[in-house]
Design goal:
It is built from seven helices and 19 strands. The chain is α/β, with parallel strands linked by helices. α1 packs parallel to α3 and α1 runs parallel beside α7.
Amino acid sequence: MYDVIIVGAGPAGLTAAIYTGRAKLKTLVIESNIPGGNAGITDMIENYPGFPQGINGGELMALFLEQAENFGAELVYDQVIHITSGEGVHKLITSGGEYRTRAIIIAAGARRRELEVVGEKEYMGKGVSYCATCDGLFFQNTPVAVIGGGDSAVKEALYLSDIASRVYLVHRREGFRANETSLDKMFKDDRIELKLNKIVKRIEGDNTLMKNIVLYDVLSGQEEKLSVEGVFVSIGMLPASEFLSDLVELSNGYIVTDENMMTSVTGIFAAGDVRAKKLRQVSTAVGDGAMAAAAVTEFLKE
């Protein structure tokens, strides 16, 4: 029996673990992939306070994890499949077994949205990727495309411009949602070519690797075949909340909480990107994690 189990070892989950560990609560963190979440695979984080020159996302998350473990938090790698609640005890069914706890903080984060076009699944891992910092080095001195127009897409294009021979940024509109600093860098980078008002219609290749993407111009209706060896999809996120079923209240898949991060079920809290909110950044995830941990500490005292 744990005092609190935290689902997810991203910025929110690890911050919560730091706080619950300091409060001397028996804390378990369950992570299905790698510690750090999306922040952990970000090449450079430039807007987190305290690092005026920026810091590699993996390095920052490693520090988070070290601090949580220093305060006694345990980390296991497992996949939560289902959660049940009753009589003040929550049971987490995982791929490896089951765990019981008095309180839960769900900080499972969000994953990259897929294009859902012909050829995407066929060439996944064969040219199609959802993480430039994970797979970018496989495409040294070759042309690649980045799909999207938000912060993550622009940052991935900038990252890949130092690796690939050419980076095409494909965006369905002319306007961008990315921050102005990143946009200024992108517009000045002559290795990045913009393909605006276009969407990916299909991904083509041979029996082993993708070879090109077919773009559709939303204004003219014309198609264009773009020869690239890699395509990096960055068109938004989907909350990792499938395992919750109907357990807690959701809004478009995101967990609804009150101001203390409590969900619709007593004793279950949520923090970070999986929570319904406007801004999803490392700094807001840290705030969520701290608030959720404080709320759990108070809840268990009561």
